[in-house]
Amino acid sequence: MLEKHGIFVSEEARERITSCSDLDTLTLWFDRSLTATTTEDLFAEDPEVPGTSPERA
User: Is residue 37 included in any domain, yes or no?
Assistant: First the structure.
């Protein structure tokens, strides 16, 4: 999705995304990918959503 929007995805970010097996995290990242302007937007901490800190994702 990010690449389709012209956003560069590093190998590190690609590995993080493809190796994630947590459905809730993947859903969150997908939702964020719809409005993201950078790859880092996917991994940003959301204080309103418990467990979304970059360390937990």
Answer: yes
7-46 residue pLDDT tens: 999 999 999 999 999 999 999 999 999 999 999 999 987 5
Contact predicate 14/39, CB 8 Å: no
Task: Tell me the pTM.
Answer: 0.73
Residue 41 CA, chain-centre distance (Å), reads 7
- The whole-angstrom separation of Cα 44 and Cα 9 is 15
From CA 20, how far away is CA 26, in angstroms rounded? 7
- In sign, the C-alpha dihedral spanning 50, 51, 55, 57 is negative
Q: How many domains does the chain have?
A: 1
Residue 53 within any structural domain of the chain = no
